[in-house]
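Sequence and structure are kept together here, with a separate record for every protein. An example record follows, reproduced without changes.
>
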Amino acid sequence: MDLNLLRALDVLLQENSVTRAAERLGTSPAATSRTLARLRRAVGDPLLVRAGQQLVPTPRAVELREQVAALLRGCDEVLRPGAGFDPADLHRSFTVQTAELLLVGLAGTLADRVRQEAPQVDVVFLPEAMEGGPGLRQGLVDVELGVLGHLDPEIRTRPLVRAALVGVARTGHPIFERRIDARRFAAFDHIGISRLGRRHGPIDTALAELGLKRRVAAVVPSHTSAMMLARGTDLVGLSLADWLPDATAALGLRTFPIPLDLAPLDVGMAWHPRNANDPAHRWFRDRLADAVHAASAAAHTPGAAPR
C-alpha cells in the first residue's frame, strides 16, 4: 500500500471525520472522500460509517488504528534516522584522535556531559599517530580533533575555535627580564614540537624573513611534554594562547606573545561521511564541539591565570 495512503488512513482513523482529516492532510474534503473510498476497497471494510451527523469507526477500523500508527512510527524511524533517538539508551564507544594539549583541556568537560546524557557511552582517546592517515576512512577513528590537514577528499569537517601560538618558559627565565622582541625571542634555545622529529616550521620561516635564526635544542612529540621540559630548563617552548592557564601557572610557567607575524591555528573536527547522518554519532560530535567551546570560553573568562 502507498505510504501516503497509510498516512491518510491514520489521520482518518484519528479524526473520524472527512472534513477534519482533509484539513490536517492539506487537501479538499472531496479528495479525502475519494481516498477513503480507495482505503475501503483496499481493506475490504467500510472503516468509517455514518451514525446520524457523524462518522464512527467499524470494529476493523478500531483494530487498525494503533497498528497503522505504530507502522508509520516505524517507517519514520527508518526514513528519518534519529526521530526516536535517545542518548540515555545508547551503549557505544567513540574514538577521538587528538593532541594531548587539547585532550587535557576538554576531556573532563566532555566526560561529564557524556555521563549525564548517555551513562553507557565510553570515550577512547588516541594520539595523533594516525593523523592525516586512513583512520577515519577505515573506521578506526570516529572523530579527528585538532589542526586538520592532509585529509582524504571525502572527509567531512567542522571548524570549532581559532587559537594563537604563544611562547612558554619557566617563571624565572631570563627572557622575561626585558621586552621580548623577535631578536630576543630567537636568541634563546628552543623546544621543537613534532611527532616526526621535524626541527623547522612556520616560526623558523618567519624568523628567516627577518634575517634571524633560532636554535632548536630539543624536539619532543607534544606540547605537554614541551611544557614539562620548559619548567625545569632555560629552553623556550610553545603552547596555545589562554589554553590551560591554571595548569600553566601550576607548573611554574609563564606564556608570552610570540613577536612574529604568525597565522592563528584553526582547530576543527573531522569525520567520515558514513557517520554523517548517524544520530548517535551526530550527538557525540555535538557534545565534543560543546566541550571544546566550553574549554575555550573558560580560558577567556576573567580571573583565569595571568600571563
About this structure: The domain at 88-162+266-299 is CATH 3.40.190.10 (D-Maltodextrin-Binding Protein; domain 2). The chain has three domains: 3-79, 88-162+266-299, 165-263. The first strand starts at residue 48 and ends at 51.
